[in-house]
């Protein structure tokens, strides 16, 4: 590998005199280079460092929120470097341009892209470092490098007896120049990739309480803040009983903010006690005042008035619809959903003259820097964001409102302050998965599906996300331009910026062989704040597409599995997971009495997943007994993490299918905590079987693809059991 391949690797000497390799990790599996042609500058977004003390450190530019990046990406380096994964120290990357996802120009973790992006460059980095160490040892021994080998951090002499540890070679190694490509290990020699070796690298820290989450941050002289927000989104606080609140024990300050009223105290529960005593007068002039019924009526009017933008058109849908022997029409409603992460939103901020530090469990630290700078006299480059472990992300922590609030309070009080949202605040004042409406029309002739028409109505996430995303791409811009940058970002969406596919993803990728297809989106927004939610658009499109496929199979008088398989002749990976899931679930055999099975298939984030759900009704409630999941995510790096993410996605999806529903009444959210925004409990957990397809394709995402199929599979099982089709979530017994 000659140095003109610097789009992937650059070698230098670290501060310790050791070996440092800088590498570029492409985002969203899009190969980008770190080399700027105009300036000649080479930008990396990950670092591998070997020191003379024997330390191996990997700077991780993705956050760890339980999805396994901490272990999975480190395993890639360990394999090629030939060291045990647990010997590599992992540190979270600071905010810097070098760490941005080059596809979208932002430093964030999402879209189940981390493994796909790191698969090739991280292995190349490990292999290059190992080869430079081998070259250094060979030079000392005066032998040919190709005659040497490595094992667990040692270079071994050709005689099979002598060896040298890497730590003795790192200073010499950084002088070596590799010419030509360094071959990666053949699969037959892999010791860690694809193997169930050891536990997750973060397991011990999380089990012993030494892993630092955002809510764990403690600083000298720190105070605590609670924020009371408008009960209706868009409301403003006019005044409150400030004198009484400030006179309460431990209260440091209380003041009106853009979002409501902040109370600051020397102890968390004192802040909460003072918050409970607040008497706030609200101005609801610009606040929303809708109900869920209003939202869906809004969508229906929009679909009637606007046929939507065509996102995929093949054949003549209108023609086959007019001449169909059987025309099947259905409408599906899906409500707003909260994320319900176990760690509620929180952030710690410390303002000092000319700088601010923020400690936050954020999925997008560079957007956090923009959020922190908004209400201060600081520019973004004067804000340092320290990323912690995340107690669940699910897309919620991509939106930085919690960081913005903490920074605003810290700027006011001028001491370190930790802002913690209560569970009730997290449920009522979060950013939600959007409610969506789907109108479906299917044409059947001679038992064949001849036409498919899918109209989607609802908002796009980017409309709400661009507020901080656009300024983060231009951190040098003055703050008075932030709003303008956001508006421009929306205007050039799909032209100068990536197209927002959050409403249509999964729908346009319809895999079944149907000669006439039309998928369209009616873009309409009722004004409820939204953000990304685990599996994003695939979650609602999966329910609509796979439930409607079952309805069509029923009208065609065909088994739902056979109906799908017949239209997947040219989709071998879809067929394989579907057949495998059906086989493991004993689809061809009748289920136990009082139970029924449903099947669904969906590809998301490049990963193919088929699931069969076996369910029944007990004591008037839906009971899920078993879920069989077959997944093809390409080459598996760590089978245990894939299984964890599939089962986690299944439970996440079942919670949404059975209980997920954020409802509005005159603009106020009715739900407040886990008693009325329920998640699946341990005693309700079904038996889960995860089958991982053996594949040599490049790896794809696993954090989210387990969610979309389980919701329609459960609904389809309930139809098989009761004969009653459900087109609205959550499902009812």
UniProtKB/TrEMBL annotation:
Top-level lineage group: Bacteria
Against SUPFAM superfamilies, the record matches this protein to: Molybdenum cofactor-binding domain (SSF56003)
Ranges where the Aldehyde oxidase/xanthine dehydrogenase a/b hammerhead domain occurs: 208-286
Among InterPro entries, the record links this protein to: Ald_Oxase/Xan_DH_a/b, AldOxase/xan_DH_MoCoBD1, AldOxase/xan_DH_MoCoBD2, AldOxase/xan_DH_Mopterin-bd_sf, N-heterocyclic_Hydroxylase, OxRdtase_Mopterin-bd_su_IorB, TAT_signal
Pfam family for this entry, one: MoCoBD_2
Q: Which PANTHER family match?
A: ALDEHYDE DEHYDROGENASE
Question: What protein name applies here?
Answer: Xanthine dehydrogenase family protein molybdopterin-binding subunit
Which organism is this protein's natural source? Marinobacter daepoensis
């Amino acid at each position: 590998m000659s140095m003109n391949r610097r789009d992937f690797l650059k070698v230098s000497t670290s501060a310790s005199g050791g070996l440092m390799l800088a590498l570029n990790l492409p985002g969203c599996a899009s190969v980008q280079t770190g080399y700027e042609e105009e300036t000649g500058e080479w930008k990396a977004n990950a670092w591998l460092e070997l020191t003379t003390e024997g330390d191996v450190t990997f700077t991780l530019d993705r956050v760890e929120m339980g999805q396994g990046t901490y272990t999975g990406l480190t395993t890639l380096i360990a394999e090629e470097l030939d060291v045990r994964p647990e010997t590599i120290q992992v540190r979270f990357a600071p905010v810097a341009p070098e760490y941005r996802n080059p596809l979208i120009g932002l430093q964030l973790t999402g879209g189940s892209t981390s493994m796909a992006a790191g698969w090739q460059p991280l292995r190349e980095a490990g292999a290059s470092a190992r080869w430079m160490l081998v070259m250094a040892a060979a030079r000392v021994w005066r032998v040919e490098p190709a005659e040497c080998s490595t094992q667990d951090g040692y270079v071994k002499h050709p005689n099979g007896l002598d060896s040298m540890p890497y730590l003795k070679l790192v200073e010499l190694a950084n002088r070596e120049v590799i010419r030509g490509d360094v071959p990666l290990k053949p699969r037959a020699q892999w010791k860690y990739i694809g193997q169930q070796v050891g536990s997750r690298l973060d397991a011990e820290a999380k089990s012993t309480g030494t892993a630092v989450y955002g809510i764990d941050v403690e600083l000298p002289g720190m105070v605590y803040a609670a924020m009371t927000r408008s009960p209706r989104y868009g409301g403003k606080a006019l005044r409150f009983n400030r004198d009484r609140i400030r006179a309460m024990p431990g209260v440091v300050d209380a003041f009106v903010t853009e979002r409501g009223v902040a109370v600051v105290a020397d102890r968390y529960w004192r802040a909460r006690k003072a918050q409970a005593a607040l008497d706030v007068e609200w101005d609801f002039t610009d606040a929303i005042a809708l109900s869920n019924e209003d939202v869906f009526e809004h969508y229906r009017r929009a679909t009637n008035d606007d046929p939507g933008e065509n996102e995929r058109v093949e054949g003549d849908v209108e023609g086959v619809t007019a001449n169909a022997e059987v025309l099947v029409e259905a409408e599906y409603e899906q409500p707003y959903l909260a994320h319900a992460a176990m760690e509620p939103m929180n952030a710690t901020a410390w303002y000092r003259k000319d700088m601010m530090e923020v400690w936050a469990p954020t999925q997008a630290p560079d957007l956090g820097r923009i959020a922190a700078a908004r209400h201060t006299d600081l520019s973004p480059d004067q804000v340092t964001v320290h990323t912690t472990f995340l107690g669940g992300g699910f897309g919620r922590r991509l939106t930085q409102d919690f960081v913005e609030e903490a920074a605003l309070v810290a700027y006011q009080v001028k001491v370190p302050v930790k802002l913690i949202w209560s569970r009730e605040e997290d449920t009522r004042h979060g950013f939600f998965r959007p409610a969506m409406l789907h109108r479906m029309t299917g044409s059947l002739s001679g038992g064949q599906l001849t036409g498919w028409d899918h109209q989607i109505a609802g908002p796009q996430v980017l409309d709400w996300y661009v507020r901080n995303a656009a300024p983060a791409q231009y951190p040098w811009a003055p703050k008075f331009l932030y709003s303008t940058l956001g508006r421009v970002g929306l205007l050039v969406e799909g032209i100068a910026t990536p197209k927002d596919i959050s409403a249509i993803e999964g729908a346009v990728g319809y895999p079944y062989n149907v000669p006439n297809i039309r998928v369209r989106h009616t873009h309409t927004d009722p004004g409820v704040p939204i953000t990304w939610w685990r599996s994003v658009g695939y979650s609602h499109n999966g329910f609509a597409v796979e439930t409607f496929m079952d309805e069509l199979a029923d009208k065609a008088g065909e088994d739902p599995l056979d109906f799908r398989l017949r239209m997947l002749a040219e989709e071998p990976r879809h067929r394989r997971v579907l057949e495998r899931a059906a086989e493991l679930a004993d689809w061809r055999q009748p289920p136990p009495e009082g139970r029924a099975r449903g099947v669904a298939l969906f590809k998301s984030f490049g990963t193919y997943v088929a699931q069969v759900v076996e369910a029944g009704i007990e004591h008037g409630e839906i009971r899920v007994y078993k879920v069989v999941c077959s997944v093809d995510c390409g080459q598996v790096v760590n089978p245990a993490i894939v299984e964890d993410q599939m089962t986690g996605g299944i439970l996440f999806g079942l919670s949404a299918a059975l209980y997920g529903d954020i409802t509005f009444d005159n603009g106020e959210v009715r739900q407040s905590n886990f008693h009325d925004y329920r998640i699946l409990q341990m005693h309700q957990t079904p038996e889960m079987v995860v089958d991982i397809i053996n594949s040599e394709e490049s790896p794809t995402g696993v954090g989210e693809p387990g969610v979309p199929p389980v919701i329609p599979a459960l609904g389809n099982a309930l139809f098989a059991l009761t004969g009653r089709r459900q087109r609205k979530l959550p499902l009812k017994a």
